[in-house]
Amino acid sequence: MNIWQWVENLQTDLAEAGQPHNARLLEDISSYCADQEIDKVEALLPEAKALCQTLENPWLSVYIGHWEMRHRLGNKKEGETALADAVALFELAHREDTQDCPQSVCVTQDLAACYSLIDGPGWAEERIAVSEETLERIDPSWNCYQCLSCEKALAIIDQQNPQQAMDYLAQIAESLTAAGEDIGPGVLEVQNEALLALGQYEEVLARIQKVELAIPDYGEWKNISQPRQIQKAHALARLERHEEALEALPALREMTLGEMFSWIDAISPALLRQSELNSWQIASRLQMALKQLSNNGAHRRVIEMAAITIPLAIARGARWSAQRQLDLAYSHLPKLRIDANAAATLEDLQQRIVQMPPSPLPVASNELLAWLNGPDNAADTADLSVQESAHESAHEHQPPDAELETAEQPIKERNPEQELEWLLVAVSQHPDDSDLHAQTAGALQACQAHDEAIELLRRFMANHPNDDSNIRFILLELLLENGDEAGIEALSQQFITANDPIFAYWSLAQLAYQQLDWEGVEAHCRQVLAHQADAYGAIGILAKSFMQRQHFAQAAEQYHALLSAHPDDNDYKWDFMTAASAAEDWLAVSEVATSLGMEMSADSLGERPNESWGWVIIRYLEQGDIKDYYAKRTGPVSAIIAENAAPNSTQHMGDYVVFDAQVLIPAPEDPEERENFVPTFALVHTLERGEYRNSVFIDGAHPGEEALTAFDTACREQGWPLWVHSSADYEIIDSGNPEASAEPTSVPGIYMTITAPMQVSARQIDTFLTQQTADWPHRLCWLRLAEEAGVMTQPHLDTIERYGL
Questions:
Q1: Residue 408: strand, helix, or coil
Q2: For the segment 411-440, what is each residue's pLDDT rounded down to a tens digit?
Q3: Residue among 45, 27, 23 at smallest CA distance from 35
Q4: What separation in angstroms does the CA of 232 have from each of 160, 192, 198, 226, 287?
Q5: Are 708 and 750 in contact (CB under 8 A)?
Q6: Is 687's pLDDT higher than 90?
Q7: Burial degree of 5 (CB within 10 A; 0-12, 13-18, 19+)
Q8: Taking the model in full, what pTM does it have?
Q9: How many angstroms separate the CA atoms of 679 and 668, rounded?
Q10: Average pLDDT over all residues of the chain
Q11: Is 690:653 a contact under the CB 8 Å cutoff?
């Protein structure tokens, strides 16, 4: 049974109603979810929920709610934080107006999965019961039949009965085969989980090898391929084939925090065996995952993951990290429904930590900083420096009156986890040492101990209200990273009380900037500037706030002030030209361009530039979608769009635009590739619309280069831009005249768009296309235009059928 048919019908209706974006939205949200594109799903969800309200379609609310749960439970591994919403969705799906929606069955999987993350063993009986109740209402032809069967099997595994789960899934596989249904990847994945629990690692590898040989050419969703890779690595690691396990394992950078448990569970034996791989960088990533699971209320999963990460910390000699993870695990112990050996596991880990030998300071505490930062220190090399972390925190949110350029200091690579215990001892013995506190905070940050770093610096600030070191800026950075609005407001008030209004309002300006509160940025920056007119940091973000509100003349004024103070700073020159171009202060633009060595024609001085500076790509962000268009560069940061938009997309052909000067995609290093490289820039502002109508899509057999050139010339003479979008290897199948017996043949194809000024009617464009292509050997198709023009559509439908368009 195709449980998605009604969704496909709704997509068709939306597209035909002129809402192609909404039609695509329904597909994108499921596709991004399956491919673990967390940021993209997060961006689409508000729009998807708004569409549900607009259409007043209760079935759609169930559909979107299900995919939101798949995202929150599958990708982010939410537990108790998702429970109320999962229950509410379950209730929604069983209302009279929604119970016939096929996805009302899917929400049972969501509810069971949520309880699994909260406490899998504790809720196993209930998960089995709710899965069985729903399975009785469907048959193997439903996609949900396999999903719910997997949920039941996972619950059985959580009851420590993996063989029973295998037997049950064998029955499911038989029923699927008998019904003529393929056994899906979900069933295969859960079978492998059961086999791993049974220790049948060779069997898992054999099964995975068979699946890998049958992977389709078009690839797989990431939520299918990634678990299989992890299972393969898991089996290889248990067979002590550690090098192969590491090779099979997905890269750490590809893992979502929600999937880190499976990742580290698979590879932990190899990390314990190869100490050089058991690094503080991996530990930092694992700590982030543990924190997320804890925040998500995934109580059992936190304890299970800590049971893996703590032995790794012990093996690294990282006692502080091990104890911190254990304390976190213990905080979740009372929230389990049943113990299932959790308390004994944690008690055993506590005993192992107690037995760890202490890590004495390598030198006296008052000499520690000099030793750590000296040329002969004994710290292991690493990718992130404690000193660098503290330095960047202070510099990125430096005081508004600080120099905008800071001399680069040589920074050694360090192991913050190794040094942290020494630093904590030293800072306790030297509570007035600001440098020591800054470096300790940097080490805490690197170990993902942000709360502890904040508390350390808060105590220092409370005890040293008049301290003028960088501590305040490091604390502000940490509070901003944590989104601690109340903490930043309290910090600001502390400095108002201490009669330091510049830092107080600078803190509030930074908070407003982070929250995209551009009016707030202006208000707080003006307070800073009232106390110090040359506070360049405040001037910089004030200019950005004006740009965001399209107050371009005011932004140009602020950038001019920065440029006057730093006349050799080319970045400020480009920022000024962008603001001035958007404000159409062309004389100022030409003056700054000349200072950068750009030759502007005399006609451009004081006028909108119309130079011929080659091609650029302008990037638009429309309703969450990135769209790139070729454009002709007319000046330093201006261009005219020269590419037709896709049909049913907003037309930008002929738009005169201003763009940001920062190249979005770096040029390739290869000299030959650089020759054809076209830089991409972000749109800032449209000065004038091109006033072209929506593009007409034309598809069919290629008429030949001579005919195409003549057609292009005729279009240009009309002032109607033509753009060929197909590649040179695009081919279509000509099934021939329906009355003939010839075999279908492959012929070169072409698809292109044409657009015309707004005042040109669809009937005029149809007449022009019909006349221009009348002598071509193959008829082309422009069905949507024919429908709009009210002319016969059957010739276009015949073309679609003949060529399979």
A1: coil
A2: 446 789 989 999 999 999 999 999 999 999
A3: 27
A4: 21, 9, 15, 10, 24
A5: yes
A6: yes
A7: exposed
A8: 0.77
A9: 10
A10: 90
A11: yes
